[in-house]
Amino acid sequence: MNTKFRSGFISIVGRPNVGKSTFLNAIIGQKIAITSPKPQTTRNRILGIKTTQDYQMVFVDTPGIHKPKHELGRLLDQTAQSAIEGMDAVLFMVDQEKGLAEDHIIRLFQGVSSPVYLIINKVDTLKSKIEIDKIIISYMNAYPFAGFFPISAIEGTNLNHVMDELVKCLPVGYPLFGETEVTDQSDFQLMSEIIREKVLYHTQEEVPHAVAVVIEHTEMNAGVYEVHATIVVERNTQKQILIGKGGDMLKQIGTEARKEINKILDTKIHLILWVKVKKDWRNRPSDLKSFGYDKNE
Ligand SMILES: Nc1nc2c(ncn2[C@@H]2O[C@H](COP(=O)(O)OP(=O)(O)OP(=O)(O)O)[C@@H](O)[C@H]2O)c(=O)[nH]1
């Protein structure tokens, strides 16, 4: 082994919708975390693993930090907070559209011994350099960040500079994952997340947040991978919206999810989707557990 090989953990934290998952996918070079224009897309802690000849960087993508209204929301905040401790570096991502430093988030970093970097994302939508300078100054006054990087996760701007800096934070050490591994998610998790992403893109208001996706079972049938999945919602009205007129909406979600799963898993799949109502599941610990949201600690 390269005696100077470095390995370690970097977490990505920030408010919902600032682009954490988009950044992770861009760094890893393939989609491992779903993204959407809706806040609170990410619900589980997801590892993204980047391995080169010289280093292995394990990124921890976290749910956005917000003010929780549900038991699920509380669990998501806890996940983000626990991802700040014990890292080799922390990336605190802000969205240049959202503006200036927020005390309740900055407070999370008090007492954190690892370097925390300020990442200002979405600079592609920026109108003037003065605006970005204003954001940088506001955050740098609020916390002694180890450095700052204006980036565009979508266009790939400045990502190389972030990586160059992060490598310096990693200790010398052995790789922790196989060199071809890019995530710790199982195929079942990936499939359910992709279905949930399509639901997020096609629904509005309360529906996206009320949805969980469960892969019930899979089987090989005449060379085709048959995947049976249930989309769980909280109310009958949400079920009707998801099914759509004459089943149109569910069909659309199913087609888009199938195409993407085919591509990612490189297997021909047949996706069978059901919609089920489970009242108030976001407040029930037993439901959160059975839908896979108990693995965040
Ligand atoms: N213009 C622009 N949009 C971006 C950029 N990065 C992300 N977005 C968009 O911002 C939205 C949110 O991106 P996500 O990656 O899902 O954000 P997130 O921070 O992971 O969100 P949560 O899961 O809610 O915490 C999506 O619509 C992305 O396409 C960027 O660099 N430029």
From TrEMBL:
<feature type="region of interest" description="G3">
    <location>
        <begin position="61"/>
        <end position="64"/>
    </location>
</feature>
<feature type="binding site">
    <location>
        <begin position="61"/>
        <end position="65"/>
    </location>
    <ligand>
        <name>GTP</name>
    </ligand>
</feature>
<dbReference type="InterPro" id="IPR005662">
    <property type="entry name" value="GTPase_Era-like"/>
</dbReference>
<keyword id="KW-0472">Membrane</keyword>
<feature type="region of interest" description="G2">
    <location>
        <begin position="40"/>
        <end position="44"/>
    </location>
</feature>
<feature type="domain" description="KH type-2">
    <location>
        <begin position="195"/>
        <end position="279"/>
    </location>
</feature>
<feature type="binding site">
    <location>
        <begin position="121"/>
        <end position="124"/>
    </location>
    <ligand>
        <name>GTP</name>
    </ligand>
</feature>
<dbReference type="InterPro" id="IPR005225">
    <property type="entry name" value="Small_GTP-bd"/>
</dbReference>
<comment type="subunit">
    <text>Monomer.</text>
</comment>
<dbReference type="InterPro" id="IPR006073">
    <property type="entry name" value="GTP-bd"/>
</dbReference>
<keyword id="KW-0694">RNA-binding</keyword>
<feature type="domain" description="Era-type G">
    <location>
        <begin position="6"/>
        <end position="172"/>
    </location>
</feature>
<comment type="function">
    <text>An essential GTPase that binds both GDP and GTP, with rapid nucleotide exchange. Plays a role in 16S rRNA processing and 30S ribosomal subunit biogenesis and possibly also in cell cycle regulation and energy metabolism.</text>
</comment>
<dbReference type="InterPro" id="IPR015946">
    <property type="entry name" value="KH_dom-like_a/b"/>
</dbReference>
<feature type="binding site">
    <location>
        <begin position="14"/>
        <end position="21"/>
    </location>
    <ligand>
        <name>GTP</name>
    </ligand>
</feature>
<dbReference type="InterPro" id="IPR030388">
    <property type="entry name" value="G_ERA_dom"/>
</dbReference>
<dbReference type="InterPro" id="IPR009019">
    <property type="entry name" value="KH_sf_prok-type"/>
</dbReference>
<keyword id="KW-0547">Nucleotide-binding</keyword>
<comment type="similarity">
    <text>Belongs to the TRAFAC class TrmE-Era-EngA-EngB-Septin-like GTPase superfamily. Era GTPase family.</text>
</comment>
<keyword id="KW-0342">GTP-binding</keyword>
<keyword id="KW-0699">rRNA-binding</keyword>
<keyword id="KW-0690">Ribosome biogenesis</keyword>
<keyword id="KW-0963">Cytoplasm</keyword>
<keyword id="KW-1003">Cell membrane</keyword>
<protein>
    <recommendedName>
        <fullName>GTPase Era</fullName>
    </recommendedName>
</protein>
<dbReference type="Pfam" id="PF07650">
    <property type="entry name" value="KH_2"/>
</dbReference>
<feature type="region of interest" description="G1">
    <location>
        <begin position="14"/>
        <end position="21"/>
    </location>
</feature>
<dbReference type="Pfam" id="PF01926">
    <property type="entry name" value="MMR_HSR1"/>
</dbReference>
<feature type="region of interest" description="G5">
    <location>
        <begin position="151"/>
        <end position="153"/>
    </location>
</feature>
<dbReference type="InterPro" id="IPR027417">
    <property type="entry name" value="P-loop_NTPase"/>
</dbReference>
<dbReference type="InterPro" id="IPR004044">
    <property type="entry name" value="KH_dom_type_2"/>
</dbReference>
<feature type="region of interest" description="G4">
    <location>
        <begin position="121"/>
        <end position="124"/>
    </location>
</feature>
